[in-house]
């Protein structure tokens, strides 16, 4: 099976995390044959290990990233640079934005990821920004922009927006990015029906396209 393995030293400290398409073969390879200097040194310190089985090799890859960032094993040199992998970030600004960022700092806001596919991350952000009226501009101006007239922004540039006004949107986005798409799809389906009844076929079509993209 595919999955991740965690190598531990005599103190139970995780010193290396790896992933494999075939866990049995990969872990066995550490204890057979010859190795380079780094691997030989690593093996000499391994006293115990544990493993996590995943559904796919891609899932193992993403889990490996999380485990390396969580435990910071001393023998992992690759995959420790957060800048290599983009995250979707819900910023913690007074008027929050939803952005793609390679910065993994918690100070920036609530992060989701990492995303192995940058295009997928950007498309997801574009989709959610179409649905939820979060701030789109990097800097507030003194005049509302097109997004306000498209009902895709609350226009904090000209309106006083309270934190509570964003709460429902933030909860929905957080739920969506954690894998719960049911509510978002239901909301879009209701909007699509409403637009159709009001003969706003262009907006109804946009909702249908969004639903198709989500699924």
Explain briefly what this protein structure is:
The chain is of the alpha+beta class.
Structural class by sheet pairing and helices = alpha+beta
Shape: elongated
Order of helices and strands: EEHHEHEEEHHHHH
**Average pLDDT:** 87
* Rg (CA only): 23 Å
Helix content: 40-55%
- According to DSSP, the number of beta strands is 6
Strand content: 5-15%
Give the end-to-end Cα distance, rounded to a whole number of Å. 27 Å
Uncertain spans: none
Quaternary assembly: single chain
Number of helices: 8
Report the sheet with the most strands, covering strand number, pairing sense and barrel closure.
3 strands, antiparallel
Strand order of the largest sheet: 2-1-3
Please render the helix and strand layout as text.
Elements: E1 3-8, E2 14-20, H1 23-29, H2 37-45, E3 48-53, H3 57-71, E4 87-91, E5 98-101, E6 109-112, H4 118-131, H5 146-149, H6 163-177, H7 182-197, H8 201-214
Antiparallel strand pairs: 1-2, 1-3, 4-5, 4-6
Helix pairs in contact: 7-8
């Amino acid at each position: 099976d595919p999955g991740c393995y965690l190598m531990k030293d005599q103190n139970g400290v995780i010193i290396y995390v790896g992933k494999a398409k075939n866990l049995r073969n990969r872990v066995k390879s550490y204890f057979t044959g010859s190795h380079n200097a780094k691997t030989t040194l690593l093996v000499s310190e391994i006293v115990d290990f544990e493993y996590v089985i995943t559904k796919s090799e891609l899932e193992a890859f993403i889990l490996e990233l999380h485990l390396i960032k969580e435990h910071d094993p001393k023998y992992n040199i690759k995959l420790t640079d957060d800048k290599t992998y983009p995250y979707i970030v819900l910023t913690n600004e007074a008027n929050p934005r939803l952005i793609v960022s390679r910065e993994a700092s918690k100070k920036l806001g609530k992060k989701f990821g990492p995303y192995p596919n940058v295009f997928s991350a950007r498309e997801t952000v574009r989709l959610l920004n179409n649905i939820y009226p979060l701030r789109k501009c990097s800097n507030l101006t003194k005049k509302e922009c097109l997004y306000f007239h498209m009902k895709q922004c609350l226009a904090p540039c000209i309106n006083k927006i309270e934190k509570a006004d964003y709460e429902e949107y933030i909860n929905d986005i957080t739920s969506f990015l954690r894998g719960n798409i049911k509510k978002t799809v239901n909301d879009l389906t209701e909007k699509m029906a409403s637009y159709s009844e009001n003969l706003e076929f262009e907006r109804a079509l946009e909702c249908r396209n969004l639903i198709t993209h989500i699924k």
